[in-house]
Amino acid sequence: MEAMRVFVLLFNARTENEGIHTIRLATPDGKERHIIMMFESEDDATRYAMLLEAQDFHVPTVEEIDSEEIEAFCRGSGYESKLIPVGFVPQSPEERVFLAPPEANLTDTDWTLEEPPEAGEAESESELSNSELDDIRRRLEGLL
Questions:
Q1: Which of 3, 28, 84, 117 is the most buried (most CB within 10 A)?
Q2: What is the radius of gyration, based on Cα positions, of the chain?
Q3: DSSP 3-state assignment of 19?
């Protein structure tokens, strides 16, 4: 694949404790595949991050990065990468996880959530209520 700028979901971005969001899928032989999603659209990456938040998962940061960096990381770690193009349409039930996270999230991660900044240091630009997140999730699921 030709190098391009893509958007990935990072936890504790730009810290020593940085982690990247992966999807873990079982293979028919009982093994696991770890897939890093590379979103072509920042909006799609942001929407996926909001869906994770709606499931009470740690909220990732959407970061732009060169696709070659992700692919090199995947080769070195035994992970796979998946480009999620604008207008992505799943071709199988397995691919639905690239539009909406699975209901079950991994509780033990290879990284630890960094403490948020102290009050006054940095405030969230906007916070959505649970009902707003549920409404967004219902509308997104309606697109599937």
A1: 84
A2: 16
A3: strand
DSSP string, 27-92: -TTS-EEEEEEEES-HHHHHHHHHHHHHTTPPPPEEEEEEHHHHHHHHHHHT-EEEEE-TT---SS
Q: Is 0.85 topped by the overall pTM?
A: no
Please, are residues 141 and 133 in contact by the beta-carbon 8 Å criterion?
no
- Residues 19/36, Cβ–Cβ less than 8 Å: no
Phi and psi torsions of 77, nearest 5°: -115, 0
Tokens of 101: 């996270």
| Number of Cα atoms under 13 Å in the Cβ half of residue 86 | 5
CB 140 within 8 A of CB 47: yes
pLDDT tens by residue, 22-66 = 998 888 898 889 999 999 999 999 999 999 988 888 889 999 999
Using alpha carbons, select from 123, 79, 108, 98 the residue that is nearest to residue 41. Answer: 98
